[in-house]
What does this fold into?
Amino acid sequence: MEIDTIVTLEGNEKYYLADVTIQNDVKYFLANKLDEKEELTKESCIFEEVKDGDEIYLDEVLDQTKLKYITTVFTSSLISDLEDEINEEA
It folds into this structure.
């Protein structure tokens, strides 16, 4: 799975994969939920990519310790990207 794509989960819920990070050889995605018109909502979550043989699926990260750590990684990455943009404009 890659960022900038839309995935459909069980229950026909759709998410836009906005960002990715790899921690300890595990891929995590920051995803925004889409509404029935496939427009972004305010709801977001973090998914862990799970491989089962040839199948790849996403599990929502619910463990609070892991969630806090991955959220910090995504936040640091966003801040770094914003700083880079500011420096390029200067």
